[in-house]
Prior knowledge:
By secondary structure, this protein is an all-alpha fold. It has helices at about 1-50, 70-75, 80-115, 120-130, 135-145, 155-160, 170-185, 190-200, 205-210, 215-245, 250-255, 265-275, 280-310; strands at about 55, 65. It is built from 13 helices and two strands. The protein starts with a helix and ends with a helix.
Amino acid sequence: MSTIRRKLTRLSVVSDRIGDRDAAPYLLVGPALVTVFLVTIGPMLWSLWLSFNRWKPGSLAHQEPTLNGVDNYEWLFSNDRFIDSVVNFAFYGGVGVFLQVALGTLLALALYNYVESRTLRIGLLTLFIVPMMYAPLVAGRMWQLLFLPGGGVVNGLLGVVGLPTVNWLGTRWLGLTAIMISDTWQWVGLPLLIVYGGRANLSDSLYEAAKVDGASRWMMFRRITLPQLRNLIIVAAILRFMDAYKFFDKLFIMTYGGPGTATELPTFFTYLVGFQEFNVGRAAALTWVLGLGSVLTMLLFWRYMRTVEAS
Length: 311
């Protein structure tokens, strides 16, 4: 009888230890999860609730949040100014991100294939990385001065070659193009680094075998380089698209959404609604629309990657 009791006692001790061991990870991770909830998820849920409320802290009529259903979202999607900002974003995000990723990819392959000196290659890579260290406001101010219609360097160069000067920041599409050029100058180094690292890790035996078979450079690029680097290029595009959804600094300093509202992007429109009109409910609705748009973009890229891998 005493032997059975000892065995039962051992089993209970072992089970208690197993229970403690199972609970330990949750006890260790618990504080971090609570912090993440309080800092991230909590404010997100609060902003979601605010998006269904009418709240203007600076007004006399709506000092406290008042539920108004989906009125904020109805106002948003019927607002011509918001629609124009989405069109501007489609131009900036589509053309700008494509330009950055395509140019970064071409520069990376050119550096790897045609620059034989390792020192020169590292120097050129550093040269492309340096602009990423600039504060966006500083880079925006610098490019604003370069694009000045009266004494800017860009118009000065156009005059040297006999071309007429252009009011770069004075029209909708030229203003967006100028902002896009400044952002490309600053961030082309990111896709360049990603693609360059991927190309450096490709086996040279693939290219040697292709040369033996008589493949041209173009065929090797299409059949070897591009398929091997496709996922990295997509990752670079995703990163730049995510940044495009929160693009604000250069727009603020270069055009302030002008002339008028011509170059506004959704992020800048959100800033005006939230911090100029102090309409917290509508600003919260705007942030959720932008957040869902960024998630949808990422899912589309992910689906494309899966489709390519499956084929």
